[in-house]
């Protein structure tokens, strides 16, 4: 054996497991945000399971139910895998879209399915659901990764359209119902406006962005916030699809903004946080703030004049919304990462991590405390 | 640290090259995988060729090793004689290991690059952002079109399962068997069957984009094997002439087995030996 090569071979042999381990498979995990309804919070804790928890004293919350419930035989064949869109609460129901088990209407009280009554309805849907449902006029709208747009009656889960609408690429963003129209974005970068009444096109041509559109949010004043993963953020006139502003961020923007009147705040994948005045166009309020280069996927929240941003770290950063000054950073230990949007309730911001841990950020003293989830089935 | 270097120097360039090829080749990620695999195999061809050379040289001296094994019963002496034979023949028994090991990281990166560039979940697309270069031409293309010939490249596909099995088998069949020991040879024949089955089983779980890479990789491997070893069944001669191992000194030169078992050694002569000397040794 050539001894000069021995160290090289030895080193390569040692490196092989590292090479193999350094790239892991990324399975669907989901990023549905916690939805607050009075004292109840609906949280997706793991693998597309949802739990209704009741806040006790700010330090803990007790689960009322979990769906699918591993202790029920009927739920054993339901494997949601992940949940990306926020659940929609309407009267006594919770509507949710799961990545691979279909769409469900649950009874808000006990978490049992109102429909479908026999397992899942995934067989009626072509593709996976990487977004959530939009509810308008008693109809649920949702898109799939195979580019199908479905309209189902919220009452019983039956199709409201004879056939789903077909688009050239996948629909990842939750459709937005605004006024008389439904807005649907595709991963080819097209934004379509459809009439809620009959599904016919409401714009002459779809708006075409230069990159995929994976998120879509309605703003006040009949405007749409359209982030594109090629760094552009568009503000569109929902009426006719004209571009009111085209702001170029420093990295991918795939998040929802925090909105405060005519101010919007959002982060990018490069760890920059932006504040824009969209009264006319998109004027920066301050130089982008930094969250130390960590990716921001979770939508920010604003309470009073304090902006709360949770990044991939995960670190919760408190920022002065007027000046862009970083007020405090609070790292969260051993909690996975944060991809779910931060939601506001009772003057606090709620942060859900990928390990299913719920935190409450206090904008008064810039602190973060965990809310212990009791009785959640994972 | 090593993982970061691996990502920076191998993985990221490959992911970006894949996306670039996707853009150039009509937004077809299937074509991009095919072009990419062929390109990488061509770039690493010198390493592959060297490995094939060493394997072939090893095969050339196998009959002599057998002779030594028969001649010497003492394991220590046997090992010394074998090592001496290696030295005198100019064959490094681990020589094929170096090029193979150098290709390993490249193959692993290639495999991972296909998986990364073809996100199977929203999280995977999020992760892709950290691998793409800051070039709008690339970023406009993601996520890439996941269908190729009506197949979803993110999902396993039965056709590809079969193709993976068949092409892996074909590659095994065209690879030269180093040993002349019957027992080892039968073990290798068993492997020739087990390996394709094993990879076909893997293909049942893998996205068919990865299987496509594997199929093209195997087809290119078959082509290289045929170019290097020839294919007697179809009367195809090797395109690349392989260095023959140096003939060892006379006292260690064993019987005629080496000259009768290998076609290459019949037609070439080692350093210090004439064609006439070789001819005299023929039965």
Any descriptors?
A: 378 residues; mainly beta; five-stranded antiparallel sheet; globular; B: 283 residues; mainly alpha; two-stranded antiparallel sheet
- Please state the average pLDDT score of chain B: 78
Low-confidence stretches of chain A: 16-23
What is the name of the CATH topology of chain A? Methylamine Dehydrogenase, Chain H
Unreliable residue stretches of chain B: 250-283
- Helical fraction of chain B equals 55-70%
Query: What is the largest interface, and how many residues per chain?
Result: A-B, 44 and 37 residues
Into how many domains do the coordinates of chain B divide?
A: 1
In whole angstroms, the N-to-C terminal distance of chain A is 55 Å
Number of helices of chain A: 1
Number of helices of chain B: 13
Beta-strand proportion of chain B: under 5%
The assigned structural class of chain A equals mainly beta
Coarse structural class of chain B:
mainly alpha
Estimated radius of gyration of chain A: 22 Å
**Strand residue percentage of chain A:** 35-45%
Please give the CATH class of chain A.
Answer: Mainly Beta
**Element-by-element helix/strand order of chain B:** HHHHHHHEEHHHHHH
Please, could you describe this protein's structure?
The complex is a heterodimer of chains A (378) and B (283). Chain A has 378 residues and is mainly beta. Chain A has one helix at residues 6-22; strands spanning 35-37, 40-46, 49-55, 60-67, 88-90, 93-97, 103-107, 113-115, 134-136, 139-143, 148-153, 165-166, 176-178, 181-185, 190-195, 207-208, 217-219, 223-227, 232-237, 243-248, 258-260, 263-267, 272-277, 283-284, 289-290, 301-303, 306-310, 315-320, 326-331, 343-345, 348-352, 358-362, 367-374. In chain A, strands 1-2-3-4-33-32-31-30 form an 8-stranded mixed beta sheet, with no helix packed on it. In chain A, strands 21, 22, 23, 24 and 25 form a 5-stranded antiparallel beta sheet that branches. Helix content of chain B is 68%, strand content 1%. The model of chain B is unreliable at 250-283 (pLDDT under 50). A two-stranded antiparallel ribbon of chain B has the order 1-2. Chain B has one domain. Chain B is mainly α and 283 residues long. The chains are: A mainly beta (378), B mainly alpha (283). At the A-B interface, α1 of A face α1, α5 and α6 of B.
């Amino acid at each position: 054996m050539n001894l000069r090569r021995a160290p090289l071979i030895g080193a390569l042999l040692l490196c092989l497991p590292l090479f193999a381990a350094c790239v892991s498979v990324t399975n669907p995990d989901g990023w549905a945000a916690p939805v607050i309804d009075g004292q109840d919070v609906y949280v997706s804790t793991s693998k597309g399971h949802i739990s209704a928890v009741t806040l006790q004293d700010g330090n803990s919350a007790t689960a009322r139910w979990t769906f699918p419930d591993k202790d029920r035989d009927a739920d054993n064949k339901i494997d949601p895998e992940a949940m990306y869109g926020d659940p929609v609460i309407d009267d006594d129901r919770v509507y949710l879209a799961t990545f691979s088990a279909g769409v469900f209407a649950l009874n808000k009280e006990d978490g049992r399915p109102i429909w479908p009554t026999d397992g899942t309805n995934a067989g009626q849907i072509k593709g996976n659901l990487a977004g959530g449902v939009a509810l308008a006029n008693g109809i649920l709208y949702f898109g799939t990764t195979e580019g199908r747009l479905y309209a189902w009656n919220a009452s019983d889960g039956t199709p409201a359209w004879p056939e789903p609408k077909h688009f050239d690429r996948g629909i990842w963003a939750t459709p937005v119902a605004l006024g008389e129209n439904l807005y649907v974005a595709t991963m080819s970068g097209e934004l379509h406006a459809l009439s809620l009444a009959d599904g016919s096109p409401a714009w002459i041509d779809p708006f075409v962005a230069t990159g995929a559109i994976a998120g879509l949010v309605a703003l006040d004043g009949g405007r749409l916030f359209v982030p594109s993963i090629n760094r552009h953020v568009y503000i569109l006139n929902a009426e006719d699809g004209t571009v009111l502003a085209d702001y170029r961020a420093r990295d991918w923007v795939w998040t929802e903004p925090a909105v405060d009147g005519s101010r919007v705040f959002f982060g990018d994948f490069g760890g920059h946080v932006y504040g824009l005045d969209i009264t006319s166009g998109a004027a920066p309020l301050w130089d982008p703030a930094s969250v130390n280069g960590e990716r921001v996927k979770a939508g920010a929240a604003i309470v009073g004049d304090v902006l709360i941003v949770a990044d991939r770290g995960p670190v919760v950063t408190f920022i002065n919304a007027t000046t862009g000054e970083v007020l405090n950073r609070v790292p969260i230990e051993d909690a996975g990462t944060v991809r779910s949007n931060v939601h506001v309730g009772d003057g606090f911001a709620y942060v859900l991590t990928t390990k299913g841990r719920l935190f409450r950020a206090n904008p008064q003293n810039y602190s973060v405390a965990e809310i212990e989830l009791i009785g959640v089935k994972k | 640290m090593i993982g970061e270097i691996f990502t920076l120097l191998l993985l990221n360039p490959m992911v970006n090259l894949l996306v670039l090829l996707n853009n150039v080749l009509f937004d077809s990620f299937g074509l991009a995988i095919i072009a990419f695999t062929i390109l990488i195999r061509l770039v690493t061809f010198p390493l592959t060729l060297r490995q094939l050379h060493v394997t072939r040289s090893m095969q050339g001296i196998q009959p002599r090793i057998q002779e030594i094994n028969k001649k010497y019963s003492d394991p220590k002496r046997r090992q010394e004689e074998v090592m001496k034979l290696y030295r005198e023949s100019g064959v490094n028994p681990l020589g094929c290991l170096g090029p193979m090991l150098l290709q390993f990281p490249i193959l692993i990166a290639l495999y991972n690059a296909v998986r990364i560039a073809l996100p199977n979940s929203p999280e995977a697309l999020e992760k892709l952002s950290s691998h793409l270069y800051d070039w709008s031409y690339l970023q406009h293309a993601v996520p890439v079109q996941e269908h190729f010939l009506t197949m979803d490249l993110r999902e396993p596909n039965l056709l590809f399962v079969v193709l993976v099995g068949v092409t892996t088998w074909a590659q095994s069949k065209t690879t030269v068997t180093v040993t002349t020991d019957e027992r080892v040879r039968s073990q290798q024949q068993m492997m020739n069957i087990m390996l394709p089955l094993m990879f076909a089983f893997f293909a049942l779980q893998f996205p068919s984009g990865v299987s496509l890479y594997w199929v093209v990789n195997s087809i290119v491997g078959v082509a290289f094997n045929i170019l290097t070893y020839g294919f007697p069944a179809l009367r195809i001669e090797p395109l690349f002439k392989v260095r023959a191992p140096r003939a060892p000194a006379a006292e260690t030169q064993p019987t005629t087995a080496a000259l009768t078992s290998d076609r290459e050694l019949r037609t070439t002569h080692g350093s210090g030996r004439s064609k006439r000397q070789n001819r005299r040794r023929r039965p």
